[in-house]
Amino acid sequence: MDSLERPRLTILLAGPRGFCAGVERAIEIVEKALEKYGRPVYVRHDIVHNKTVVEELEQKGAVFVEELADVPEGVPVVFSAHGVPKAVPREAAKRKLFYLDATCPLVTKVHVDAERLHSAGRQIILIGHEGHPEVVGTMGQLPDGAILLVEDTEQAEQLVVDDPHNLAYVTQTTLSVDDCRDIVAVLHRRFPDIEGPRKEDICYATTNRQAAVKEVARRCDALIVLGAPNSSNSNRLREVAVAAGCPKAIMIQRAAELDFAWLEGVSTLGITAGASAPEKLVQELIEKCRGHFDLTIEQVEVTRENVRFSLPRVLTA
Predict the structure, then answer these.
(1) Is residue 310 one of the residues assigned to a domain?
(2) Is residue 257 among the annotated active site residues?
(3) What is the pLDDT of residues 226-268, one digit of tens each?
(4) Do 95 and 124 share a domain, yes or no?
């Protein structure tokens, strides 16, 4: 189709978008382990929630399993960026497995806070989504029953505790900033003595990506989030776009999933990517749009990130 015949489309690229420092570190741990120890390197659970990333690491020699029992003797194993219950490294040590912990340092901070508050005698409330690996890992830092899970404001309103004057809360790092704020407000109203974390648990990358989406959502007719269905932070981005007033928003894993009929009548399209989605997926989507539209591309950047987390010493020695 001649470019003069193609409809015009303005793409607003949200910034920041895509990989965060925790995801970059986790992927690099697997890659460095493969370089240092050779194939195979086992990974317990998807290293991050993105099919493209997992498939590329598989091609390099990573083997992904769900349980430590599936890891044979004599091979390295990496724990995913989401964190694991304490029982997992204990079992690895019992079996004398060599393991590398790729837990995001910001998730580790939540674990440390939960242990500190528990040691101080507080009952812990975890704000998060049941079944998410990060939540499973955080709850697994303490004995059964030490942490109460709250997923929304309704549960916060109905929560029954042993001692309302001896509570503390921590949060999953990938929640909606606005939803979490509402839940915390309910907890503070019901339990004025509740203690929160010393520093906000929702990670910088989640906060920044949601702020960028809010900015883009006010200016576009539709918004696409590139991310995986099991990615909490990606799902939150779509929800944030809708809440910010974007007429329609979807999440897809790759450009091939986009039905261009969905873009009918759209003149301004917002695009972002979850914290575990590589930038090449964004560029792939732009190129697919270029085949159908006369494009104008604008970067909408709310902040710049320069965070980097160090690798385990055993990989850099």
Answers:
(1) no
(2) no
(3) 999 999 999 999 999 999 999 999 999 999 999 999 999 999 9
(4) no
For residue 83, give its domain range.
21-104
Q: Is residue 276 part of a domain?
A: yes
Residue written as tokens 């309704």? 154
257-287: per-residue pLDDT in tens? Answer: 999 999 999 999 999 999 999 999 999 999 9
Question: To which H or E segment does residue 108 belong?
Answer: helix 105-119
Residues 69 and 100 in one domain: yes
Angle between helices 105-119 and 21-37 (to 10 degrees): 110
Point out the catalytic residue in the list 5, 28, 56, 134.
134
* Chain position carrying tokens 């509570």: 167
User: For residues 4 and 246, what is the distance between their CA atoms, to the nearest angstrom?
Assistant: 29
Both 53 and 80 in a single domain? yes
State the maximum Cα–Cα separation within the chain, in Å, rounded to a whole number.
Answer: 70
